[in-house]
Amino acid sequence: MILVFCIVLGLVQWGYVEAACDVVTKKQWDGLKPLHVEYLPRPVNIVIIEHTATPGCSTDAGCEELVRNIQNNQMEQLNFWDIGMSFLVGGNGKVYEGSGWLRVGAHTYGYNRRSIGISFIGNYNTDEPTADQLEAVRKLIQCGVDKGHLTSDYHLLAHRQLISTESPGRKLYREIRTWPHYLENATSIMNNS
Questions:
Q1: Most buried of 17, 47, 62, 166 (most Cβ within 10 A)?
Q2: Which CATH fold topology does 2-189 show?
Q3: CA–CA separation, 42 vs 44, rounded Å?
């Protein structure tokens, strides 16, 4: 009986990990369960900002539909275990759970087992990130530090600093370069492979 209680308590607490950071959970956006799970050793010290390079969204229904479509594409076409990003943020200012704080994502080849990937929904070569999106990501990162998922001295990087991509788009890249913890020279954390 005690074992059952401990298991139930653990599952309840695990479910609140994302909710504690004001994140729309996978259950709430009607996401699929992952096919396989690999747990992320925490705390991590790298936060990677990227964009989806899809149309943007500004309503709850529109953002949830886009997140589901991204997950379906990544799992069915790319054979990912789950949606690749740790978190996604819509133009409505809401953060959506991807692989989350606890599980290894598939967002930046070579860095997935030691970072969190936060993807802005939209194409930020052409779109400007909204004030609500920017504030939501700042709060998410601070919550990650407060909850012990991120180190207090984490490094913030643009996706393009680590792999050959335009992500997170010129306009979002220009913005995050002004944020605390932004690491201009990524050489010290880059893979040598």
A1: 47
A2: Lysozyme-like (3.40.80)
A3: 5
- The alpha carbon of residue 22 and the mean position of all alpha carbons in its chain are separated, in whole angstroms, by 13
Over residues 18-39, the pLDDT tens digits come to 567 999 999 999 999 999 999 9
Cis bond before residue 43 (omega within 30° of 0):
yes
Q: Could you tell me the pTM of the whole model?
A: 0.89
Amino acid, res. 127: D
Distance from chain centroid for Cα 77: 20
Burial, 73: exposed, middle or buried (Cβ in 10 Å; 0-12, 13-18, 19+)? Answer: middle
For 117, phi then psi, to 5°, come to -110, 120
In 3D, which of 130, 100, 129 has the Cα closest to residue 112?
100
Distance between start and end Cα atoms, the chain: 49
**Which residues are CB-contacts of 75 (< 8 A; sequence separation ≥ 6)?**
32, 35, 81, 82, 83
Q: CA 8, CA 159: separation in Å to the nearest integer?
A: 38
